[in-house]
Amino acid sequence: MAVMRGEKLLTASDLAALCEVDLKTIHNWVDRGRIAHFRTPGRHLRFRAADVAEFLRAWGYTVPRELARASSRSIVVVGGKEAMTHVTRALEGVPVRHVTHPYDALVYAGSDPADVHIVDVAALAPEIDVGRMLETLHRACPQSTFIALADDFPGMPSFVTRVGRGDSAALRGLIQPAQGGGSTGPGSEDANHQEPTSISQRASSEVRSAG
Q1: How buried is residue 104: exposed, middle or buried, by Cβ count under 10 Å (0-12/13-18/19+)?
Q2: Structural domains present in the chain
Q3: pTM of the model
Q4: pLDDT tens-digit profile of 59-82?
């Protein structure tokens, strides 16, 4: 997993404290692929703030304000002013950088790679091979999410998600997934391995304990 310079990282103990579970449970979740992670050269677990925030939202935990700020995703829009206006309105409050030419996006990819690249296909010059340009960006930023604003995109690379140029809801859903609260955790086949639980599951458990 690529980690950007200065990115906030959390330890297994940090995550255990946030979820009010023990370290063994965190390691079980990691082993079962419940949360994205990586290990240091010394084999210590580390978690990106953005991955932890996504995990907490998905399972109905409260995301601390400091963590939410640290985990905000960096976004670059490649295209014209119309695309920039559309994206900033759809993602109100999310900081967005704007470049009009793919070359500038590649410069950013080398110096300050973004978490999300949004490309307005129709706004690019006709001589630009959009598929090849996206392939180049993807090689420079393999960890990024790539979104093409286009009503049609023949030959779109497999790592790109196409969103209609005027579909604000779909764009918002990709960048800002619905926060938890109504989700339910996956069933565990092994009672010795505690699964993440949603707010509703924890509340039900507390009621049963109280009774």
Answers
A1: middle
A2: 1-72 (1.10.1660.10), 75-175 (3.40.50.2300)
A3: 0.56
A4: 888 888 777 666 667 899 999 999
